[in-house]
Amino acid sequence: MTKIEFMQGNTACAEAALAAGCRFFGGYPITPSTEIAEHMARRLPKMDGVFVQMEDEIGSIASVIGASWTGARAMTATSGPGFSLMMENIGYAVMTETPCVIVNIQRGGPSTGQPTMAAQGDMLQCRFGSHGDYGTIALCPASVQEMYDLTVKAFNLADRFRIPVFVMSDEVVGHMRERIEIPDTVTVVPRRPLEKGTLPFTAGADGVPGFPEFGKGYGVHVTGLTHDERGYPEATDPALHAALVERLVRKVEDARHEIADVTLTQPDAEIVFITYGPPTRTVRQVLHDNPEKAFGHLQLRIVWPFPEDVLGAFPHARAFIVPEMNFGQIAREIERHTCVPVKSVPKLGGELHTPDELLAVAEALR
Amino acid sequence: MVDKSLELFDCGHRACGGCGPALAARLIMKGAGANTIVVASTGCMEVFSTPYPETAWKTPWIHSLFQNAAAVASGVEASLKKQGRDEKVVAICGDGATFDIGMLCISGAFERGHDITYICYDNEAYMNTGIQRSGATPYDASTTTSPAGRNSLGNSRPKKDLPRILAAHGAPYVATASVSYPNDLMQKVERAVNTPGPCYIQIHTPCSTGWGFEGSKTIEMGKLAIQTGLWVNFEMVDGEVVKAKKVVRKPVEEYLKVQKRFRHLFRPQPNTEEIAKIQAIADKNAERYGIDIKQKPQE
Known about the structure:
A: alpha/beta; Rossmann fold; 2 domains; 8-stranded mixed beta sheet; 5-stranded mixed beta sheet; 15 strands; globular; B: Rossmann fold; 11 helices; 34% helix
C-alpha cells in the first residue's frame, strides 16, 4: 500500500533518505535546505540513527565521509555557500571512493546571493568544482515526488559506484508542498563488500572496487594521495596516477547510458525542449496548452553523467530549446554533443520561466 | 568618554520588536565611535540591518561570508596599519558565526595579533535560519535541531567557553557584556577598540523570537540571566579576570520558566533533576568569577 501525503520537498528528501536506509546525517543550517536537517534531527534518533550538527559545511561533509567508512549510508544537505565550502572534501570522497549523498537545495549565487530564491547555478560546480578530473552523478528533481524517488536512487548509485552523489534540487522544489505517493518499501541495493583475497582498491570489471568497511577485518588504508591497489600512497608514478584517475572518470562515464533517467515526449517533434528540475514543469504546461504545435520534450532526471545518445531520439529536431535557471550551463554540454542548433533560455533572479516566455521562444524558431 | 548621543546604527531596520542584537548594535557603535569600519558576518543582524535598498549603518560596513569576518578584518587592519591610518576595525558577528563556523578565522586573527575588536552578539542559536542550536546554545535549551520531546531534554551539551579560549590566545582584553547593562557595554567596547591587539567582547543579546518571550521583556531577560548567575559580566586583562559583576543570586528557575525554550523543564511538573544541573552551572559560574554578594547574617 502506498501512502498518499501532502509534503514539502525538503521533508520528502529527508523521508526518502530514511527509507533508503540513511542512518547518519552531518549538517549545518543554511537556507533553503535547513528543513532537511531539522527533519533528520527529529527523525533519525528514533530510527537508531545519528544526527550530528557540525560546526560548518566542511565539517559536515567530512563527518559524512567518516560515517560512510563505518558502513553507514550517510548524507548531508546544504545550499550554494555551503556547497562551495564542501568542494575539497568532495574531491577527497572521489579519490577515496567513499559513497555518500550530498543534497544541494540551490539558491541564487554567486556568494550569499539570494538565500530564499531558487536557482540552478551550481550545475557545473557539482561536475567540476573540486580540483582534478573525476566523474560524478547529479540528479535533478522537478517535483516533490521526484525529490523522494531520486533521493532513494542517489543512495543506491552512491553505493553502486562508490562516489559522492549529488541531489541537485533547488528552492522551488525544496520548499514546494504537493501530493506525493510514498511506497511501503523502496529498492535498496547495498554496497558490494570487498571479496576475500582482493586488495582494497582493486576494481571489478565495472571499474568499482568492493567496499572494505572499517572494522571488518580489512587492513584498509584510506588516503587522498594517489594510491596503489593496496591503498598505499604512491604519488610520483605517472602511470599509476594516470590509471587511477582514468578509472575514477570512466567508472561513471562509461556507465552513463545505464545511469540515464529521462522522459521523452513526442520524439517526432522538430522543436524540442530539454529541461531538468523546475523548468520541466513550465515546459509541461507549454505542451499541455499547445497540443497542436507538437513540441517535443526531453526531461533529464539525471544530468551528470550526461547521456548524449538520448539526443538522437529526436531525429527530426530542428532546434533544442534549453530553459535553465542559470546563465546556460547545461546548454553548453548539449551543444557539445549535437549539430542541431541549441537555443539557451537563461532565467536569472529566482523566478521560473513562464509558459508564455517559452512559447514565444519556440514560436520564433518555427 | 563614550559619546552617548552618537547614533551610528540608525532606526528603520527590520529587526523583530524587542530585538537584543539590534540594541547591541546601537550601543556597540556608540562605544566604538565614528572612526570605525564594521565587518559583519552572515546572520540576523546582517539581514535586518540592511533591507534593500537601505542600510542602518552610518560607517563603512562590509558583509563578507558566514565564517570569515575575522580574516577580512585582519586584511583591513593590516593594510590600514601599513598606510599609517587609525580607523578602528570592529567585527560584529553572531554566535553561530563565532563559536562554530568562524572559529578557524578568529583563532588565526588572534594568534597573529591584529589590532581588531571582535564582538559576538550572542543570542545562543542560529536565529536567521530558524533557531538551530549552536556552540553557544545553553544546556537543555530546545531548538529545531535539539528539539525537546519524550526522549530529549533539548541541547545536550554546555555552552562553549569562548572568552577563555580567546584569552588563551593571548588577547590583551576579553570581556562579556549584556544589552541589559548599556553603560557597562559601551564602556567595554570603548576600552576594547582603544586597546592595541585583538580584543574580544561577547554580548548577551536575548532573542524574543528564538527563546520565546514577549518582545517587551528583553531587558528583563538579560537581567535575569545575570541575576541567576547563568550569564556573568566580566573583564579579563592579559588572561586574568579583573572584574565581574556581583549579584545577590536568584534561583535559575526564575530565568528558565519565563522562556519557551526551557518550558519542557516545567511540564507537566518541574524536572527538578535537570533544573538542579542548570543550577550547578550557575553555582560554578558564581564560584569561578566570585559574583556572590555576601549578605550579612541576620541578627
